[in-house]
Amino acid sequence: MTQTLTPPEHATVADPSASARLKITEIFFSLQGEARAVGWPTVFVRLTGCPLRCQYCDTAYAFHGGEWMTLDAIVDKVGEYGARHVCVTGGEPLAQKRCIDLLRRLCDGGYQVSLETSGALDVSEVDPRVDRVIDLKTPGSAEVARNRMANLEQLRANDQIKFVICSRDDYEWARALMAEHRLADRCDVLFSPSHHQVAPTELAEWMLADRLPARMQVQLHKLLWGEQPGK
């Protein structure tokens, strides 16, 4: 279902005219596999590029390449699917400054918009109508030092904090951080087992034993389609 995109002629990263464009890895239609909107038919806009290198990353194909598209072209392509929900993801979408403009344009278009971000970059300029899913990196991710903890002061009720749990140590770390910052009182908190590293039943048992005020989630799209990109 991945769309084949045609780049504008002669467009390069240094091209001044690229300021009104974003570099896109893919635009596709699928079911949302995670977070509050899980199960909803959703248009995914995957931006190219990411400054992080998490050890469990399943979208490394979005680190490089991609094709330039204007904001108008992206919004038009999203509209072709006739869906209410749109998810802007990556890579790390906020690594491209025009992502902020795209999010606003999509909200203005009446879509229910979510943003999947690592939380390593400032989220304060994101349109307040956007559901921000902020993936706080655990020690097991190998990128815990990249967390921008100041983002926690920006949390709104429609935000979601996600922890990808790679081990029992990760679980303990996330539980402590959750309590320290009273995250459950401020927004939804999601715990997700790292694929092939923590069994879903194991994580579920830890959460139940601790009466943890968080939502357990698994990746629905992987249950349905496995590791296929663009799903």
Describe this structure in a few short sentences.
This protein is α/β, with parallel strands linked by helices. The chain has 5 helices and 9 strands.
Name the strands of the widest sheet in spatial order: 3-1-2-4-5-6-7-8-9
The number of domains is: 1
- How does CATH name the architecture? Alpha-Beta Barrel
The Cα radius of gyration reads 17 Å
Estimate what percentage of residues fall within beta strands.
Answer: 15-25%
In CATH, the topology is named TIM Barrel
Question: How many β-strand runs?
Answer: 9
Characterize the overall form. Answer: globular
Between the first and last Cα atoms, what is the distance in angstroms? 7 Å
CATH class: Alpha Beta
Structural class call reads: alpha/beta
- Residue ranges: pLDDT <50 for 5 or more in a row? 1-19
Structure notes:
The chain has 231 residues and is of the alpha/beta class. The chain has a single domain (19-224), classed as Aldolase class I (TIM Barrel). The chain is 21% helix and 23% strand. It has helices at 71-79, 99-108, 168-180, 200-209, 220-225; strands at 21-31, 41-47, 67-70, 85-89, 112-117, 131-136, 160-165, 188-193, 215-216. The protein has a nine-stranded mixed β-sheet with strand order 3-1-2-4-5-6-7-8-9. Helix 3 links the parallel strand 7 and strand 8 (188-193).
